[in-house]
Design brief:
Low-confidence stretches of chain B: none
Number of strands of chain A: 0
Strand content of chain A: under 5%
Number of domains of chain B: 2
CATH class of the domain at 73-172 and 200-291 in chain A: Mainly Alpha
Number of helices of chain A: 11
Shape of chain A: globular
CATH superfamily of the domain at 73-172 and 200-291 in chain A: MetI-like
Number of helices of chain B: 12
Number of strands of chain B: 2
Strand content of chain B: under 5%
Mean pLDDT of chain A: 89
Oligomer: heterodimer
Helix content of chain A: over 70%
CATH architecture of the domain at 73-172 and 200-291 in chain A: Orthogonal Bundle
Largest sheet of chain A: none
Distance between the termini of chain A: 61 Å
Mean pLDDT of chain B: 89
Chain lengths: 294, 299
């Protein structure tokens, strides 16, 4: 069929067919990430399941005897680290978010802190390890202790906590604040009794996601000089420690396949802690979005 | 009226909140100060060291005589980060287009959380997967020359790691394009694909570019997966099937080894850290600048 030049030919059928093909391709490509997740979980489950025995949880690591090796010290180390991290990063992070959203006047200072936080969020975690090594381990003489590790992780997740809390606070409608002011409440009374409770689900989501990131981090702790072989449970914040991802890394780093199976078992345990945490965080957010009163 | 005590309380709280916000500024200042101060100790020994550091093509700090040319580490870093981006960009962008333009909300509400879970898996797990699955069961059967430690397996898992970053930021950018633009195109009888590729994507381009840059910054600073899978041989090569070393991988190697604190080899991790920090900061700053341009466009 010949068509005079300049006349628009719709060729709709062909264009629609190309459209369907591209849409299908996009849908398939978007499944690659999920597919990878599936293969990874199945593979690690298969490799590590047999080593995941009760003694694995109650024994200390052993270099000579992989059959007897356990992850007790790393599990307790991670619990200690998480405790220090949450005690430091939660109040400081939420307070910083409250300052930026509720107290600071818009202006250069607020803008500067804002830019600073979004850049901090992009700093590689290993660089925080260098900061912790110089500041906490050496200058403050905390040594390679739980406290030094926890403080380093707290600084690492602080931007995450602040950004999530700011978003949650910004989502609280202005009318709630105005109503409180109209009844004579001070700024702090308004924030403490009305704005913060309303923003709590969003803050919680952010804090849980931040903690799950801290629990999975190994790089900054390695730089701090945390030990990978520890055969005791820390009894206080000044004790030496190891952590789950560090112990896993140590096992991966050994060439023997027995240790690789131990690493897989450790990963199952680590994911067994992190995946439910993330699910709770995502669930709280979804529930909050549906239940919102405003 | 507030009592004097009440006013004092408000002021104290205000000050405490300000100090909390100031912690983040102090963190940045601390990072920069530590990196510069400790790097100065590294370079102080020898001024020509700075020249060698920036232009040398050999990185052998533990040999005698040591060579401190950082280029092989930068080369390894960008080989892996570039490979990761090459893989994550098409997949992440296609995922974002699918999520924002095509997927029904039921599919969206399943796929988005799954991607978030992918983003929440610790990087040491990706490293294990690269070493025990990707290299022996995927790469070595396909490319028999692949070494046990290689850049390709690291790039592959780092690529998967940054898919969620890229797809979620691109998704935000695509969804921020106003409805009126799409409807105008539909009114001119454009198909859905033409609306997506010729109207929405160009309008969201700066957001997509920012997503790519932030993904690149993340891949550059990625540590554990790279330290496990890529090996410990600093090399100027673009061959992805051999062992290389990245900036982060070197820092891990020195930290876990027996290098005595205070020796020049140990001190070099601060100079390498400063290099890494400068590169990621530059990428992040450009990304935020690009992103701000895109936010202003429709407001």
């Amino acid at each position: 069929m010949s068509v005079a030049p300049g006349i628009f030919v719709p060729r709709l059928q062909r264009r629609r067919r190309i459209g369907t093909a591209v849409a299908t391709m996009c849908a398939l490509l978007s499944l690659i990430g999920v597919l990878f997740l599936g293969v990874l979980l199945v593979r690690i489950g298969k490799e590590g399941w047999e080593s995941l025995t009760p003694t694995f949880l109650t024994n200390f690591p052993s270099v000579l005897n992989p059959e007897q090796a356990g992850i007790k010290s790393a599990l307790w180390g991670t619990l200690w680290l998480t405790l220090v991290t949450v005690v430091v990063s939660l109040p400081v992070g939420v307070a910083a978010a409250v300052y930026l959203e509720e107290f600071a006047r818009p202006g250069r200072l607020r803008w500067f802190i804002h830019i600073n936080i979004s850049n901090l969020a992009g700093v590689p975690s290993i660089v925080y390890g260098i900061l912790g090594l110089a500041m906490f381990v050496r200058w403050l003489h905390l040594g390679r202790s739980v406290l030094a590790g926890g403080l380093t992780l707290a600084l690492l997740v602080l931007p995450v906590v602040i950004i999530a809390s700011r978003e949650a606070l910004a989502g609280v409608p202005k009318s709630i604040r105005l109503a409180a002011y109209a009844l004579g409440a001070t700024r702090w009374q308004t924030v403490w009794s009305h704005v913060l409770p309303a923003a709590l689900p969003g803050i919680m989501t952010g804090v849980i996601l931040a903690l799950s990131r801290a629990i999975g981090e190994a790089a900054p702790l390695l730089i701090l000089g945390a030990l990978t072989y520890v055969a005791f449970v820390p009894s206080g914040p000044m004790d030496a420690f190891t952590a789950l991802p560090l112990q896993i890394y140590d096992w991966i780093d050994r060439p023997q396949p027995e240790f690789h199976r131990l690493a897989a078992a450790g990963i199952i345990l680590l994911l067994g802690i992190l995946l439910p945490m993330n699910a709770v965080a995502i669930g709280v957010r979804a529930w909050h979005q549906r239940k919102k009163a405003w | 009226m507030l009592s004097t005590l009440g006013r004092f309380k408000e002021r104290t709280i205000h000050a405490a909140l300000f100090l909390s916000a100031a912690v983040s500024v102090a963190t940045t200042a601390g990072i920069i100060w530590v990196l510069v101060y400790e790097s100065a100790f590294f370079f102080r020994c020898d001024w020509s060291l700075l020249t060698e550091f920036l232009t040398g093509t050999e990185w052998t700090p533990l040999y005698a005589p040591p060579h401190f040319g950082v280029l092989p580490l930068i080369c390894g870093t960008f080989l892996i980060a570039g490979g990761a981006l090459l893989m994550a960009l098409p997949i992440g962008l296609a995922t974002a287009v699918f999520l924002s333009e095509y997927a029904p909300s039921s599919v969206r509400s399943v796929l988005k959380p799954l991607l978030e879970i992918l983003a929440g898996i610790p990087t040491v797990v990706y490293g294990y997967f690269a070493l025990t699955f990707v290299t022996p069961l995927v790469l070595q059967p396909l490319f028999p020359n692949t070494e046990v430690f290689n850049a390709a397996s690291a790039a592959l898992v780092v690529g998967v790691m940054i898919i969620p970053t890229i797809s979620s930021l691109c998704d935000d950018a695509l969804r921020a394009v106003p409805r009126s633009l799409r409807e105008a195109a539909y009114a001119l009888s454009a198909t859905k694909l033409e609306v997506s590729t010729r109207i929405v994507l160009p309008a969201a381009l700066s957001g997509v570019m920012a997503a790519v840059l932030l993904g690149l910054a993340r891949a550059t600073g990625e540590t554990m997966a790279v330290a496990i899978a890529a090996g410990m041989t600093p090399k100027m090569t673009l061959n992805p099937f051999v062992s290389v070393q990245t900036l982060t991988g070197y820092m891990v190697q020195v930290s876990q080894g027996d290098t005595p604190a205070g020796s020049i080899a140990y001190q070099s991790i601060f100079a390498v850290g400063l290099t890494l920090f400068t590169i990621t900061l530059a990428i992040n700053l450009i990304a935020h600048r690009v992103l701000r341009g895109f936010r202003e466009a429709y407001e």
